[in-house]
Amino acid sequence: MLKGSLVAIVTPMFDDGRLDLVGLRALVDFHIAAGTDGIVVVGTTGESPTVNFEEHCLLIEIVSQHAAGRIPIIAGTGANSTSEAIELTRHAAAQGVHSCLLVTPYYNRPTQEGLYRHFRAVAEAVDIPQILYNVPSRTAVDLVNDTVMRLASVPNIVGIKDATGNMERCSDLLSRLPKDFALYGGDDPSGLALMFMGGHGVISVTSNVAPALMHQMCEYAFSGKIPEAIAINMRLLELHQKLFVEANPIPVKWALKEMGLIPGGIRLPLTPLSKIHHATLRQAMQRAGVLP
Questions:
Q1: Number of domains forming the structure of the chain
Q2: Which contiguous run of DSSP H or E holds residue 4?
Q3: pTM > 0.85: yes or no
Q4: Contacts from 140-145 at CB under 8 Å and sequence distance 24+?
Q5: Which residue segment(s) compose the domain that 107 sits in?
Q6: What averages of pLDDT result for each successive group of 10 residues across the chain (292 residues)?
Q7: Does 290 map to a domain?
Q8: Which residues are catalytic?
Q9: CATH classification at residue 37
Q10: 126 is a domain residue
């Protein structure tokens, strides 16, 4: 079971939308040096909805090969088509990734039975650890706790990323899930609270720009250093919030460009961060200590 700060890494792009694969390799090195506990490649933050199938596979290959076992890699392989999710998951497994992260099918809005059968079908088709991903604010479908419990009995479904930020439903999951089933926060502002309740870490957007601080916060939380963990979370709270002033990953890609880590390109229909938010986000980065 992976624990700690798992970064939902961005996909660097040039201004014309081409993939910046050199920059992607540099980001992997950046996170290894900062102590990040795992890298999620081609998740929502990695612009999975706008890369094509071949690019999606290539990004998984590049990150897995460059990491070369130095850090666990989790491949985003979810899709709104079960057959496509199986194909992506098979490809990721062939690259030797640690596990796969599968978002709920989006737009087609399956029933709970459809969600159960979808995730079970992928798990039965590909023998690799798989993590469910529930983010109803983006997908328009909610994987309810009772369905999660059904899926937890599938041997290679090993965890869930819950991005609802709802502590009541997370508490319910923690009270019912098997002890070896991981629950990760997908909402940075509530991630520390989830770890205090027994969660296993965060799959984080903020970790893109503050990886060392996020890693240290998780370490403090797991070792019982509660005041120290809270102090880091308070330091990062404004940054957690301002990284969502527009749709993710618009703000975080702007922030990484400000840090000189990526060119800043983003693909339509997403657009660069509106100028009205530049000063606000820059101030949040400065207060967190990630910009001078």
A1: 1
A2: strand 4-8
A3: yes
A4: 140/106, 140/107, 140/109, 141/104, 141/105, 141/106, 141/109, 141/110, 141/115, 142/104, 143/104, 143/112, 143/115, 144/112, 145/169, 145/172, 145/173, 145/176
A5: 4-226
A6: 96 97 98 98 96 98 98 97 98 98 95 98 98 96 98 98 96 95 97 97 98 98 97 98 98 98 96 98 97 94
A7: no
A8: 133, 161
A9: 3.20.20.70
A10: yes
